[in-house]
């Protein structure tokens, strides 16, 4: 039969072991918060990538990316030119937040004459399938 002293000692050891386990689990939990969320975590998409995704969701046959040759933001007269020259069947136009890029989603391929006109002022890239 256990005496009161032995029982108190056993209870104290059990309590100490539980306390140690609790402290260790809290320490491990704190370490996980500082670790990267996931090794496969993707960096946030750029403005251009988000705009391209917007065009892609439209199920367009062709996607064209249009930028000023000097890399500067599109000016109001550039935007007006694109509105005036654009084919009627261009389904969607998106301009990036920094206004450096216009993306066009079309249900057809731009005619060579239109591409030549655009190339006089802009760089035009075909992003279909990229």
Rg, nearest Å = 31 Å
Shape summary: rod-shaped
- The total of beta strands comes to 4
Instruction: Give the N-to-C terminal Cα separation.
Output: 80 Å
* Helix fraction bin: 40-55%
Strand portion, in percent? 15-25%
Largest sheet: 4 strands, antiparallel
Strand order of the largest sheet: 2-3-1-4
Mean pLDDT: 81
Q: Helix and strand succession?
A: HHEHEEHE
Q: What does the model show?
A:
This protein has 130 residues and is α+β, with helices and mostly antiparallel strands. Helices cover 45% and strands 18% of the residues. The protein has four helices and four strands; from the N terminus they run ααβαββαβ. The chain has helices at residues 4-34, 47-56, 76-85, 112-119, and strands at residues 62-68, 90-95, 101-106, 122-126. The protein has a four-stranded antiparallel sheet with strand order 2-3-1-4, with helices on both faces. The protein starts with a helix and ends with a strand.
Brief sketch in words of this structure:
The chain has 4 helices and 4 strands, in the order H-H-E-H-E-E-H-E. The N and C termini lie far apart (about 80 Å). Strands 2-3-1-4 form a 4-stranded antiparallel β-sheet, sandwiched between helices.
Summarize the topology.
Elements: H1 4-34, H2 47-56, E1 62-68, H3 76-85, E2 90-95, E3 101-106, H4 112-119, E4 122-126
Antiparallel strand pairs: 1-3, 1-4, 2-3
Notable characteristics:
single chain; 130 residues; alpha+beta; four-stranded antiparallel sheet; 4 helices; 45% helix; rod-shaped
């Amino acid at each position: 039969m256990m005496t009161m002293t032995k029982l108190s000692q056993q209870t104290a050891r059990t309590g100490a072991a539980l306390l140690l386990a609790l402290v260790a689990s809290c320490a491990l939990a704190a370490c996980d918060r500082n670790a990267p969320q996931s090794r496969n975590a993707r960096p946030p998409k750029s403005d251009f990538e988000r705009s391209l995704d917007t065009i892609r969701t439209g199920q367009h046959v062709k996607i064209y990316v249009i930028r000023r040759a000097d890399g500067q933001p599109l000016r109001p007269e550039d935007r007006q030119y694109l509105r005036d020259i654009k084919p009627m069947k261009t389904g969607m136009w998106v301009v990036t937040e920094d206004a450096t890029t216009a993306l066009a989603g079309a249900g057809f391929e731009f005619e060579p004459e239109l591409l030549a006109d655009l190339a006089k002022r802009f760089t035009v890239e075909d992003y279909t399938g990229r």
